[in-house]
């Protein structure tokens, strides 16, 4: 059986452990061809270290492709901290993690992800300068889910343009699975455009907050129930692997476009979607708004939300280009997105062969 690390084309995988604080983390760097790896830190109670490793390998590769497709001069990295953030997250643990990030000397920049937030990045920044997604009070971009949702919305509009010849979502029925960080902002965009929104989430409080604000949103009891609804668009916005064979078999939506990472349950899922006539907007293409937002913090002039939002608007054109490439080259949309990202990593990343004196 192949080694789980070396069966993936990653540049570097770092296992981090600090007994005093209880820190157990893994940092994965898939590629730094375009620049230092940028990707968030996920704090999650993985069942095993093997599960955590599999997640960080997949997520860091996704970040490499996401950053390339978004036109950023950044590579792909990701980190996972193993544990329950509700009970194990402490200042000492986060600062120990920050020292681990610092030890990579700028090859990896961290940011927020599931289980971590901007105030956590401020704590990590006390030990390393290689941090983005900090609070506004500390000169950062704040909550990156704002532009993540905006980018998903742009990708959804591009998908509508491709499938129905009209980018408008007014009157379309959109099912959103997960109304946490990203999902709640996406619902806001959809409601503003007069889409018919159906949602589900395991967090009853999150659903309550959403429906108090948008009483016209309809709630169903589970994701299984949601995917069986008569939908035009399905938006997975929770954890990955949302598009299993069973889901694809029952899905009525003509478009899948959501904020979750690594939505395809396996490599054959994209083909199953194509065979069923469902247009899948690749997740790392449409959910790049967040990384665009936090990457803007690295600008020498400081963070500008307006500049970042203008760049995230380009997700519409990028998504449309991927969908059109898939159609013209008889590829799945996942294959088309991969080829587009790999082309940029190859062409632009290869400029490193031209020596520039420092």
UniProtKB/TrEMBL annotation:
Gene3D superfamilies xrefs: Leucine Dehydrogenase, chain A, domain 1, NAD(P)-binding Rossmann-like Domain
Domain of life, source organism: Bacteria
Sorted UniProt keywords: NAD, Nucleotide-binding, Oxidoreductase
Record domain Glutamate/phenylalanine/leucine/valine/L-tryptophan dehydrogenase C-terminal: where: 142-349
Pfam families on file: ELFV_dehydrog, ELFV_dehydrog_N
One record GO biological process: amino acid metabolic process
Active site: 78 (proton donor/acceptor)
Binding residues for NAD(+): 178-183
Alphabetical list of PANTHER family matching this protein: LEUCINE DEHYDROGENASE, VALINE DEHYDROGENASE
The family this protein is said to belong to: Belongs to the Glu/Leu/Phe/Val dehydrogenases family.
Protein name as catalogued: Valine dehydrogenase
């Amino acid at each position: 059986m192949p080694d789980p690390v070396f069966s993936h084309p990653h540049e570097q995988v770092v296992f981090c452990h600090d007994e005093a604080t209880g820190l157990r983390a893994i940092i994965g760097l898939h590629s730094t061809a375009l620049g230092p790896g940028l990707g968030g830190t996920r704090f999650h109670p993985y069942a095993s270290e093997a599960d955590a490793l599999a997640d960080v390998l997949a997520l860091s590769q996704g970040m490499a492709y996401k950053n390339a497709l978004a036109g950023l001069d950044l590579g792909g990295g990701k980190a996972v901290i193993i544990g329950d953030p509700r009970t194990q997250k402490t200042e000492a643990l986060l600062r120990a993690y920050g020292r681990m990030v610092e030890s990579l000397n700028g090859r990896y920049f961290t940011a927020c992800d599931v289980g971590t937030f901007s105030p956590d990045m401020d704590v990590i920044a006390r030990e390393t300068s290689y941090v983005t997604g900090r609070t506004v009070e500390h000169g950062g971009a704040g909550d990156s889910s704002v532009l993540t949702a905006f980018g998903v919305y742009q990708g959804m509009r591009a998908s509508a343009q491709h499938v129905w010849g009209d980018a408008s979502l007014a009157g379309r029925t959109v099912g959103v699975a997960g109304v946490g960080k990203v999902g709640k902002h996406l619902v806001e965009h959809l409601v503003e455009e007069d889409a018919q929104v159906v949602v589900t989430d395991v967090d009853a409080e999150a659903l309550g907050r959403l429906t108090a604000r948008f009483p016209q949103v309809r709630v169903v009891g589970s994701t299984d129930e949601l995917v069986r609804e008569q939908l035009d668009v399905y938006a997975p916005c929770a954890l990955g692997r949302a598009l299993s064979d069973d889901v694809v078999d029952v899905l009525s939506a003509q478009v899948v476009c959501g904020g979750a990472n690594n939505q395809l349950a396996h490599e054959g899922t994209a083909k199953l979607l194509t065979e069923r006539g469902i247009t899948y907007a690749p997740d790392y293409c449409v959910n790049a708004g967040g990384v665009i937002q936090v990457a803007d913090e690295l600008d020498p002039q400081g963070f500008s939300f307006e500049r970042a939002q203008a760049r995230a608007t380009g997700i519409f054109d990028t998504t449309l280009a991927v969908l059109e490439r898939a159609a013209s080259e008889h590829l799945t949309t996942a294959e088309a997105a991969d080829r587009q990202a790999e082309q940029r990593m190859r062409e632009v990343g290869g400029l490193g062969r031209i020596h520039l004196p420092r």
